[in-house]
Known about the structure:
Layout: E1 2-4, E2 10-21, E3 27-33, E4 46-54, E5 57-59, H1 79-85, E6 90-94, E7 97-100, E8 105-107, E9 111-115, E10 122-125, E11 133-143, E12 146-148, E13 151-154, E14 166-174, E15 177-179, E16 182-185, E17 191-201, E18 204-206, E19 209-211, E20 228-236, E21 239-241, E22 244-245, E23 251-253, E24 257-259, E25 262-264, E26 267-268, E27 276-278
Parallel strand pairs: 5-6, 6-9, 7-10, 8-11, 9-11, 10-12, 11-14, 12-15, 13-16, 14-17, 15-18, 16-19, 17-20, 18-21, 20-23, 20-24, 21-25, 22-26, 23-27
Antiparallel strand pairs: 1-2, 2-3, 2-4
Amino acid sequence: MRYTGSDGGKYVFRGYELYAHADTGTPRLMASGSENTVTYQHSVNTKLVWKWEMAPLYVSIDGNDENDGYEPTAAKATLTAAINAAIDGQKIIVQDGDYVLSSMLTITKNVHLISANGPEKTIVHGAGTHQLLALNNAQAIVEGISWTNGYCFVRSGTTLATPTGVLVTKGTLKDCVVTKCRSVGYGAVAVAVNGADARVVGGKIIENTSELSSTGKGSPYSLCGAGLYISNGRVEDVLIADNRGGSAVGVYQTGGTVKNCQILRNVGSSEQTLEIDAMG
Length: 280
């Protein structure tokens, strides 16, 4: 059973719950099930609740953006089309495959973008020409996806809050892998976290680089950056390893919380390079 709500989303039937109201008015669950019919004795002290759930959208490398996306066999082809079609509160399931972004993906809706089978099977590429993801909704979740081959060119100064890979201003990046992203110029990181409602939980930030010159001239790596920059928010249970840059190649922290992270084998060309450069 399915119906289309006034918000434009499609809802699927999930069953029923039958409640009894005691003299205190506190409801008590008497029965529940997945059937779409139920027989019970109605009274002023009973209440039957039909349970509906918003149907997810699907994305597949074999999909088509003209599809409505509500079935795996009628999936969208691109993440951008799925995000544009989604409504607040909706889940977007990304099927296995390699997806190439034509531009940075920006999420400002309350959606849950999740891979079907984890980051090893679902990989999003930036083609080495642009940044990958900007997450900017406090309830949004991006889960179980690999983000790779992002790029950022920094002309002057250090703009660590502008990452090569993922920017989390609001929302949660969960169990994702950010890898093989590259900046050229004066320094950028793979992941930047800079909001009170920003969280990175689980996953890996690995094998990202920050180079001073794309021609190979001068110092091999930039002034700073490569792995993680955090000025606000929370990062926990993340592996940050094998990133290469100038200084502060593992974590550059000016605020926020970094907890239970493994920070290993990050290599910089600066004599002042530290695994963690924590300020404030």
